[in-house]
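Narrative of accomplishments. A recurring question from our advisory board has been how the design workflow behaves on a single, concrete structure rather than in aggregate. To address it, we present the structure tokens for one chain from the evaluation set, followed by the sequence designed for it. No filtering or post-editing was applied between the two.
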């Protein structure tokens, strides 16, 4: 049975909502505004690294209004080391230009680079910006932590599909204005290497797809954690641009429980979306 409220023109999804999984889904045609798919679009779920987009938006706002300079140098030693996703922890240099730090966040969801940006911008400022761009409550709640203790926020970020579709739709509308928030943030996200979820349907090279001449323009941000999978972004096939957000959370106990089912469902949504938009 398809999700309640699910619509995708001329496509039979046959997607079963797993009873142990919470979903927030929204897919919108950016030309007509038609809602192609929707399920609990305003439901706030844990979104792991997806919330890093709000740090990039705040950074782009400050570059746009001149409060920060693109060549400003940032030092990773300003924050505590953090592992997992990212490249900067493996590089020999401690110092990088501000925009290269942003590119690391966009391309490989770099945790260390994210925390350096949060340290520069201030968590409160990022959260205020998130509230402006995402009024339904999507937010970058905390810094990236190796382990979350009982006194730490339980999530790195929270989000709902409606907010993230609106965020990407707004950035997409600004993309041709040089120096705009949309131009900068989509540029940082464009080489993003995680095409494992909804974006997998287009079979693009995860290491080199920012200028994919044989396929659509694809810009996305994903989030992965134990019991969390999220993929938000824009697909432009040349004749149709679509913003999508597909978020899933569940209790992944024991480790791996339902993971394959959730990933299969995310990829099925991508396949259906590809059939719909070309």
């Amino acid at each position: 049975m398809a999700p309640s409220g699910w619509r995708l023109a001329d496509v039979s999804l046959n997607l079963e909502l797993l009873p142990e999984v919470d979903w927030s889904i929204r897919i919108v045609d950016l030309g007509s505004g038609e809602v192609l798919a929707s399920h609990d679009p305003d439901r706030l779920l844990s979104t792991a690294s997806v919330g890093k987009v709000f740090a990039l938006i705040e950074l782009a706002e400050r570059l746009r209004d001149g409060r920060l300079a693109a060549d400003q140098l940032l030092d990773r030693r300003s924050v505590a080391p953090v592992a997992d996703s990212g490249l900067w922890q493996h590089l020999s240099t401690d110092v990088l230009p501000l925009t290269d730090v942003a590119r690391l966040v966009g391309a490989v969801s770099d945790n260390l680079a994210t925390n350096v940006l949060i340290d520069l911008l201030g968590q409160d400022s990022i959260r205020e910006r998130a509230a402006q761009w995402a009024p339904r409550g999507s937010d970058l709640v905390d810094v990236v932590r190796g382990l979350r203790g009982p006194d730490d926020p339980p999530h790195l970020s929270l989000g709902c599909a409606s907010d993230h579709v609106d965020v990407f739709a707004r950035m997409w509308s600004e993309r041709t204005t040089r120096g705009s928030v949309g131009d900068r943030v989509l540029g940082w996200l464009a080489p993003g290497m995680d095409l494992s979820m909804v974006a997998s349907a287009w079979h693009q090279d995860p290491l080199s797809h920012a200028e994919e001449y044989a396929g659509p323009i694809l810009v996305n941000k994903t989030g992965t954690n134990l019991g969390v999978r999220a993929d938000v972004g824009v697909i432009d096939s040349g004749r149709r641009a679509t913003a999508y957000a597909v978020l899933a959370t569940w209790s992944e106990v024991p480790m791996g429980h339902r993971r394959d089912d959730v990933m299969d469902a995310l990829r099925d949504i991508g396949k259906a979306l590809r059939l719909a938009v070309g």
